[in-house]
Here is the input.
Amino acid sequence: MDPRGPHGPQGLTHRSRRFPPPMAEQVYLGIDLGAESGRVMAGLWDGRKVRVEELHRFPNGGVWVGESLRWDLVRLWSEIQAGLTAGARRFGSSIVSVGVDTWGVDHVLLSRTGELLGLPFHYRDPRTRGVMARVLKQVSRAEIFEASGLQFMEINSLFQLVALREQHPELLEAAGTFLMMPDWIHWCLSGEKRAEFTNATTTQFFHPTHRTWSTSLLGRLGIPTSMLPPVVLPGTPLGPVLPGLASRLGLPSTLSVVAPASHDTGSAVAAVPTGNTGGTNWAYISSGTWSLMGVEVGNAILTPRAQALNVTNEGGIEGTYRLLKNIMGLWLVQQCRRSFERSGRTVDYDGLVRAAEAAAPLRSIVDPDHPSFLNPEDMPGAIRAYCARTGQPVPQDAGELVRCALESLALKYRATLEGMEELVGGRIEVIHVVGGGSRNALLNQFTADACGRPVLAGPVEATVLGNVLVQARAAGEIGSLADLRGVVRESGPPVRFEPRDPGAWEAARGRFAALLAMEPA
Here is the structure.
């Protein structure tokens, strides 16, 4: 089906907001899709500061279709159109451009005539289990790392395509175009089939030094490469919005579609409010369902030690690379909450954090990246089983479970920090936490405590800020990446957390290292 048709099915419930008349500011629309929710946001630029307004928010998440977990792409596109309509009504001709960011690895296949070849698979779908092990029998880990610079995870696009070749070869045979999730939405908006650099680098088949698709790697694995589109850098104008779409939604015909850093972490890191853009003495954590922790470097680091540490090199703004580690993140807490609600208990995140704060410290810890936490039916049960298996006190109530998850995340950050310092050859002095997780003051304090570094928390809306400010830069309103980050600092200072109680956390660090040796991920 071609999704660029009518506004969408009738009867959907939207959460579009009503606003007073807009001020005289330039407006950039950011479409930001996460694993739990999506938003259409407005970035209002006055020439010195930027502020964001939420126009429309909607739920997201996997949908089981038979035995496979998919993304309901057509519903998401309908919700996006509702948000764009709200933006058109609110801002009219003040809207300069629109751009999209989403998570990485997942993708859409179009036929040679532009038809959608089924709903795209969710990265947590079980079909990729065991695929990585089979691939590594054909191509060595070292060869794949050299051709991609990416952390080895079964959810990566490379292993998803191999699973598709094994289970649904007819879809690959019919595919005319491979598009990452934001690239597909950009196509819906502009009609242009392009792959944006930052998201292309999450596939595990984009070459980190040649900066082109790793077609030879795909060829060895029997994956066709003619479907891969040209790659563009963040900030590239893709063209005007399609005339018919503009007319239906009330958008100005002059509206430009601009590819921002379309990987949400790429946009978030662009908005880290550091004043030291050229150095590696700061680290970032883009904190949400996933925690993406790393440093910004000029070129991908592809040493044997980087491979051994299983780090990833993903593209950033101005040709930089984000040397980072994917960590399971607040997924553990989110899934605990869902489990509590399924049992009939209504709890909010603030209540869970208060309960965790009251629980005994550093009693039980887990490796957040253990495979048992990837997509369990019962997250509290998975955490309890891990603790029992490793001879630790078993968390009982919600406070103990959430404290275990948060302290474990902080200890994982410490282990990751040490690896990053080793790779860049210097001490990291400060950690910037951005994204929705930066609101979690308890986790921010645990992070400062575990890492022994100050934590600067904020902005919460880093992803959207990075998205809209890259668009503003494309319009000539902002100069360099350093200038962009200066705008973020000017628009709102971060909150500082200082480390405390080093002795208890050093002891916990030793326990955590022993756990990793006992229960390797």
Summary: Confidence is low (pLDDT under 50) at residues 1-23. The longest helix spans residues 398-424. Residues 100 and 186 are 7 Å apart (CA to CA).
